[in-house]
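Task: fold both queries, return tokens.
Query 1:
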Amino acid sequence: MKKLLFALCIATISNQTFACTGIVLHSRDGATITGRTIDWARAETNNIYIVVPRGYEMQSLLPDGTQNGIKFTTKYGYVALGAERPEFAIDGTNETGLNIGLFYFPDYGEYQKYDEAMRDITLSDMQVVSWILGTFSSIDEIQENINNVRIVGVEPGASTTHWRITEPNGRVAVLEIINGIPTFHNDEIGAIANSPSFDWQHTNLNNYVNLKSGTADSWKLGPDTLKSFSGGTGLLGLPGDFSSPSRFVRAAFFSNMTIEQPDGPNTISQAFHILNNFDVPFGTAFAPGKEPVKMPSATQWTIASDLKNKVIYYHTMYNRTIRKIDMNTIDFATVPFQFSPLDDVKTETIIPVQIGQ
């Protein structure tokens, strides 16, 4: 029965129309903000936040449905948003300010094959976020230790994943496992999506060399003077569909063209405005009449994290009121391990406007 429930949980997460997009912003006072959407269109997941104390022992799930993989005890406490099970942290920040997010990476990644004889160092792909948040405080530490574990797909046949890792000082790396080999890419653009690989996405940006912020200049074409119908025509040709390459291009341009804000809270607001551009309307994910479920959006939740001030903000497809978790109010030495739904009530917060008579 335990194996069956495990398989059902994994299938709920793994077999999705998945279209997550991430950005990184910086404020004038040195705050680094990570933001991303989480998009599952085929089923509504059990979306939760997770609080993990220091000294909490975890053990990895394995492809055979047992929980007999690598054991690790958290050196750092952390807060993450996840899905289905508290082991499956998707995006979180630990008490040092290190942030990591999981993004699906179908068809281009390849993990090492599961070897039962090496289960003691085997780590589920769905628990990499938990392992890194609980164990490390820097990208250098992760790079030094990544080959001490064997990351495997916890569900055979499911998509591979890749991960964005961000330090509070603004350094960003993307971890991809291709042909069984962990590879780190420095990310100075501050954008991530899904497939193809991170280096391909960067090369693809050259196809949009003509794009710029502002309004395109007028010019003469024979007897006609071509001029802009409106502002913003410097971005004519920016792809607007929801494919991964198009979302990466939009994320790269929007995050680098945004106006720098004075501090973390203002940059958080800016991040949510940018991420609004990546909400996936549910009707675009399937052909007409083929929708398997009814949800308000294919974008189930959106998160933005202030790594300097250690505050996590999110809203969901049911309630776009922004909620926050202030990690400074948590004593990670004494707080109990816990998890709770992202939404107490799945309804939009609507505040009536009182009109004076």
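Query 1 returned. Query 2:
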Amino acid sequence: MKELIEKIQATYAAFEADANSQLEKGNKAAGTRARKASLELEKLMKSFRKASLDASKA
């Protein structure tokens, strides 16, 4: 689960950097990368929820 949390943190950091680049500089490619990272974050958060529930049941 620790690896999952680290991957979530890394993906969020990439999302935040790209989202800020789109917002501040109008970088359209960064917006595309931010949207892609948001989809990946959604998948990772679902995995975290499942792992968290499994850990609480054990």
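Both queries returned. Flag for query 2: The chain has a mean pLDDT of 96.
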